[in-house]
Write a structure and sequence with these properties.
five-stranded mixed sheet; 11 helices; binds zinc ion; alpha/beta; binds 5'-O-[(R)-(carboxyoxy)(hydroxy)phosphoryl]adenosine
């Protein structure tokens, strides 16, 4: 079965082709980072206009890289939310157009679920498991009992973890997106330089909060100033607090739910310190943690095609009236 996947949920226009739920035939991602970096974050109106310009080109490139024609495609999968609504609608309407004109079934895919499923492009963890999705737009925990069946366990009350990395990088004028830049600079720093707060870490719930940590960082810089010498230390201490809280809450939830496996996904999952902390602490509890390689942590359409495949083989298709949605529903 060949599935075409499309993702235009944020600032990447991405189209992929996947054979039988495992072989990535092509995965073309056109990043708009340069356009948005001037503003220190994604500008929704600019993002949707760029998707309109690029979608047909990226679609054709994905077909030609895979050596596949539209006739050979069995099913179409497209992200319909959560994300920037103007951006989402570009991919969704494009997919609906292909579906209606060529009479091909389509699956509308939840972007966050797709991040959780991206691990299956490389590894095959057993169900059930807890998924931590950490990106620029989301920080949440999903309990997967089986494929296509999940429940929201907890989520951030304010900023997403990646958003905190991005805002701090913007505050220091380091560039966008901030995660990779901060990780790089923090390498030379002492994570114990300042004990930044771990918001909600010890509360008896599975929710997160990152806006207080961001404020604590800004206040520390305002009070003490920042020099080339102290910057790596401040960033290492911030990264340590963010990763520590992500690990602690996720491991607590997995323990309480009796889950022996954790799958991590989303752009922040590429962070090396987060990976080390998770692997160390989970091993102590007999829990196995799975991380996709960096290219499948970030937004991509292969994960959307894979999620579409899991629904398609269960005959769970979407109707042509399916709508886009911007926010994850609490379930
Ligand atoms: O999943 P993604 O590509 O897009 C969204 O759905 O948001 O995630 C992008 C986010 C950005 O906030 C970026 O700063 C963060 O992932 N990120 C990182 C790292 N690489 C990307 N955060 C921490 N450490 C990294 N190495
Ligand atoms: Zn994403």
């Amino acid at each position: 079965m060949i599935i075409l996947g499309i993702d235009t949920s944020c600032d990447d226009t991405s189209v992929a082709l996947l054979r039988d739920g495992k072989e990535v035939l092509s995965d073309v991602v056109s990043s708009q980072v340069e356009l948005h970096s001037f503003f220190g974050g994604v500008v929704p109106e600019i993002a949707s206009r760029k998707h309109v310009e690029l979608i047909d080109l990226i679609y054709r490139r994905a077909l030609s890289e895979a050596g596949i024609s539209l006739d050979q495609i069995d099913c179409l999968a497209c992200t319909n939310g959560p994300g920037l609504i103007g951006s989402l609608l570009v991919g969704l309407m494009f997919t609906k157009g292909l579906s209606l004109s060529r009479n091909k079934p389509m699956v509308a895919v939840n972007h966050v679920e797709a991040h959780a499923m991206s691990i299956f492009l490389e590894q095959q963890p057993e169900f059930p498991f807890l998924a931590l999705i950490v990106s620029g737009g989301h920080t949440l925990l999903l309990h997967f009992e089986e494929p296509c069946k999940h429940r929201l366990v907890g989520s951030t009350k304010d900023d997403a973890a990646g958003e905190a990395f991005d805002k701090i990088a913007k505050f220091l004028g380091l560039g966008y997106p901030g995660g990779g830049i901060i990780e790089e600079q923090a390498r030379a720093g002492d994570p114990g330089f300042i004990a930044f707060p771990r918001p909600m870490a010890d509360e008896n719930n599975y929710d997160f909060s990152f806006s207080g940590l961001k404020t604590a960082f800004v206040n520390a810089v305002k009070n003490q100033g920042v020099t080339d010498e102290t910057r790596p230390h401040l960033l290492a201490a911030f990264q340590e607090a963010a990763c520590d809280v992500l690990c602690r809450k996720t491991l607590k939830a997995a323990g309480d739910l009796g889950l022996e496996r954790i799958v991590v996904g989303g752009g922040v999952a590429a962070n090396g310190r987060l990976r080390v902390l998770f692997l160390e602490r989970a091993a102590e509890k007999g829990i196995k943690v799975f991380f996709p390689s960096a290219r499948f942590c970030a937004d991509n359409a292969a994960m959307v095609a894979l999620t579409g495949y899991l629904y398609a083989v269960r005959d769970r298709f979407s109707s042509e009236t399916v709508m886009g949605f911007s926010r994850m529903k609490r379930g």
